[in-house]
Amino acid sequence: xxxxxxxxxxxxxxxxxxxxxxxxxxxxxxxxxxxxxxxxxxxxxxxxxxxxxxxxxxxxxxxxxxxxxxxxxxxxxxxxxxxxxxxxxxxxxxxxxxxxxxxxxxxxxxxxxxxxxxxxxxxxxxxxxxxxxxxxxxxxxxxxxxxxxxxxxxxxxxxxxxxxxxxxxxxxxxxxxxxxxxxxxxxxxxxxxxxxxxxxxxxxxxxxxxxxxxxxxxxxxxxxxxxxxxxxxxxxxxxxxxxxxxxxxxxxxxxxxxxxxxxxxxxxx
Length: 269
Description:
The protein is mainly β and 269 residues long.
């Protein structure tokens, strides 16, 4: 590693022509699963702090902000919903220029399994992905606005996420983000998680040498990453932002486990 970059492995899905389908809490259908193959690729991940000018949401698909939170305990669901949801909505509205923002869920991620006591505390995701597809983004809107969805779909909407360290700083498993302008329209593989009552869908991304990756080392709790994972507009440069946790080979064994919180929001223009 130098100050300007780190060389590390990112895990990509392999496009073998087969669908990627998992059944969740549905043992009767497990025999129909189609488990995708993945491959590690050594990747140069550039230090985003050296970018001049700094990356913007509608240019790279992501932006780093100085943004403190009034939350004292991010493991308190009540405190997060009462304080952090409106904080996040205000930040996204300002940065995106949206007329309306609705944060609809959050997830805390840490490899410390002792904290995985609820559904919203999970481990880091260590493969290249984008959280929403065209179908699942529209379904999310319908889930929260069933009566007005058809009218809302006539206008532009997006899904924007935020990511923050909830410890002093991130010293292990940082988040890498791909410059959205360097992601070709090919190589997006639908990954389905089928439940008895619904189907969730994300994009897993195939390797492409055109990808250009960045990370922001040692992010502190007073910094915030904002990034776009879906946009209905075909006129913007970036509609998706592939991202992944990764193992920095220079992380010392004594480094504390990463603790972060991510928020997801429907954004209307």
